[in-house]
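Hi F.,

I've been meaning to write this up properly since the lab meeting, where we talked about keeping a consistent format for the predictions we share between groups. The idea is simple: the sequence comes first, exactly as it goes in, then the structure tokens exactly as they come out, then a line or two of notes. No screenshots and no reformatting. I'm using this chain as the first example so we have something concrete to point to.
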Amino acid sequence: MGRGISDALRDYVGEYLRSVVVYTRDDYHVRYLRDDVAVDYDDAEIERGIEEMRFEALEAEYVNDLFAERHGDLRCNVTFFEDAVELNFPLSETTGLAVAVDAGYFAQQDSFVQHVLDCFDDVDAIESQYMSE
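Output, unedited:
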């Protein structure tokens, strides 16, 4: 993968790309970290984030055992935050690729997610409408 994946993603996503990290069980390499994102994180915070990605990679085997027969193999976990979207591509039980993009880019690409979010802006309304039945 090396630096090539970072270049390819920057070409594809442009200024919306926040970070690209390749990780293994014991190590990780930040292949790209946008300057304005870098100022928000220290090394310990980056390491905690990578640890979460490692847990997801370990969990992928369990998820595949449950769903692969009906859905196919797990390809990517997506976590959609207000300002960013974290995509974790578990390549094996110990290796993966973590990519983050600005939420605005992802919303442009997946209007369904944004549509669902727009429908349910009010948590109290969701609870009263759907949890009281």
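Notes:
The CA atoms of residues 62 and 68 lie 10 Å apart.
Strands lie at 17-23, 28-33, 77-80, 84-90, 96-102.

If this format works for you, I'll send the rest the same way.

G.
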